[in-house]
Amino acid sequence: MPRTMFEKIWDTHVVRDEPGEVPMLYIDRHLTHEATSPQAFAGLRTRGLQVHRPETVVAVIDHNVPTMPGRRLVDVVDDQSAVCIQTMEENARDFGVALLDMDSEDQGIVHVVGPELGLSLPGMTVVCGDSHTSTHGALGIFAVGIGTSEVEHVLATQCLLQQKPKTMNIRIDGTPVSGVSAKDIALFVIRTLGTDVGTHHVIEFSGSAVASLTIEGRMTLCNMAIEAGARAGMVAPDDVTIDYVRGRRFAPAGDLFERAVEQWKSLATDPGARFDSEYRLDVDGLVPQVTWGTTPGMAGDITGTVPDPAAESDPVARAGIEQALEYMGLEPGQRFQDVGVDTVFIGSCTNSRVEDLRIAADHVVGRRVAAGVRAIVVPGSMSVRRQAEEEGLADIFRRAGFEWREPGCSMCIAMNGDHLSAGERCASTSNRNFEGRQGRGGRTHLVSPATAAATAVTGRLADVRRI
Ligand SMILES: CC(C)[C@H](C(=O)O)[C@@H](O)C(=O)O
Ligand code: SF4
């Protein structure tokens, strides 16, 4: 019977699937970070358990880490963050797990580091105690975010109890206008299909618009599958994937690589395979997107205006828009391009890879950050940071007046001291614009790296085609 890519990966990893029981899945790679693992390791200690296969586990410090240049442990913002970091260090040491610590040359955001080092490879099952684990799905991986009690379970057994998700195909065809990136496509998908379209599903993204994305772009798209409510996002491995993986530090090499490639190529969904649900979207002529509200689905074309709640007939939706506009300090009918910002944040596991920084730098070169705007670039990993420095991107940013930081989650979630103040408005390349996400009272507009860069130099939400 023809199978989807997800089903193929599921079938090769199911350890036990008995009627009336939750299926048990073998996990190939377990990534972990300081924010969601302390209780999991504490649970192992209490029960006197070891990590079952420590060589499959890699721990990263990313959420609580300071990003100022020359950072040290004393720079950690508060006691709770310091405890998280120190606990991660102790746990990694005591349980024999590899750790990319604050001063490691490989440190970075877990979802940037995993693919970059070849820790996540096509066909794998990958888990992490973090919702945006879906990012790794861009390589053709079933990559799923899990809760802390599941982290403990996977550490102890290498297995995950997992209800089999439903399958969904979102096929995206067409050619967006130049300057439009995967981030705009992701926002368009969520704006069109809603923030709960993917509930209980694994989304496979396919179609010509997805095939023409780089792996970095596919990661941005799969990263935001979570904001469409999905368990995970995936893209079938193709030649672009194989070129991306070749030569990565933990990827197989030589003959083993060639054998792996054969298997990876067989992962694509078979012709005639059935999904539980299917959508088709056309991004022909799509223009840059920007969010105006407090969910990633509250988005519009950069050429547009803030919606008028009065035009919404559904009372619940109307109240939602009213509340969002109130929080965001926006007026119905206001042109997006007239909205001034205080801060621009380029970073997060959505958009902090070197390709993102190249695109942003392209729009910044020879320009200055607008007066009164604070603009910061937080590369996704030390490797991204090094490469951006070698390529001269860091200099472009610094010369323009951007702050050039050390890697971490930073202002995406504001757990490390990088945050907005109440009422501050930010154009951000991250994935969540919930109330208070970037700091209490902070106002977030989700945008692509190109739009963020254009906004930094103009001081207003900008159409990158017009600066
Ligand atoms: C801290 C962590 C649990 C959280 C997640 O799971 O996604 C964070 O990374 C986020 O982006 O909100
Ligand atoms: S960068 Fe943001 S979305 Fe990504 S893992 Fe960190 S906090 Fe979560």
Automatic annotation (TrEMBL):
Keywords: 4Fe-4S, Amino-acid biosynthesis, Branched-chain amino acid biosynthesis, Iron, Iron-sulfur, Leucine biosynthesis, Lyase, Metal-binding. PROSITE patterns: ACONITASE_1 (PS00450), ACONITASE_2 (PS01244). The keyword Lyase applies. Binds 1 [4Fe-4S] cluster per subunit. [4Fe-4S] cluster binds at C349, C409, C412. It comes from the Bacteria. Pathway: Amino-acid biosynthesis; L-leucine biosynthesis; L-leucine from 3-methyl-2-oxobutanoate: step 2/4. Residues 7-459 form the Aconitase/3-isopropylmalate dehydratase large subunit alpha/beta/alpha domain. Its cofactor is [4Fe-4S] cluster. One of its GO terms (biological process) is L-leucine biosynthetic process. InterPro entries: 3-IsopropMal_deHydase_lsu (IPR004430), Acnase/IPM_dHydase_lsu_aba_1/3 (IPR015931), Acoase/IPM_deHydtase_lsu_aba (IPR001030), Aconitase_4Fe-4S_BS (IPR018136), Aconitase_4Fe-4S_dom (IPR036008), IPM_dehydratase_rel_enz (IPR050067), IPMI_cat (IPR033941). It is an enzyme of class 4 (lyase). It holds the Pfam family Aconitase. HAMAP family: LeuC_type1 (MF_01026). Belongs to the aconitase/IPM isomerase family. LeuC type 1 subfamily. Heterodimer of LeuC and LeuD. This is 3-isopropylmalate dehydratase large subunit. It comes from Nocardiopsis sinuspersici.
